[in-house]
From TrEMBL:
Residues 5-64 form the Carrier domain. Pfam families: PP-binding. It comes from the Bacteria. This is Acyl carrier protein. It comes from Niveibacterium umoris.
Length: 79
């Protein structure tokens, strides 16, 4: 599984949505499943999946699946 697929699966699992709904346009609060509580669970799941620790600014800035890809890349994860 590629890192991009792993990130997509992490979103899918954390938000309890099908992987095919995890597209670049998926945005925070655009679906009921991605609220502020789910956001923190998602952050924890991403950190665990890639063995990284996101800083506070990145947690706040992670507003979409596309932005999450950009942020994860900052931590030397090839997507």
């Amino acid at each position: 599984m590629s890192n991009l697929d792993q990130l997509r699966q992490t979103f899918s699992d954390a938000l309890a949505i099908p992987p095919d709904q995890v597209v670049n346009d998926l945005r925070f609060n655009s679906i009921p499943q991605w609220d502020s509580v789910a956001h923190m669970a998602l952050v924890a799941a991403i950190e665990s999946a890639f063995d990284i620790m996101l800083d506070t600014d990145d947690v706040i800035d992670m507003s979409s699946f596309a932005k999450a890809q950009e942020i994860v890349r900052k931590y030397n994860v090839a997507l």
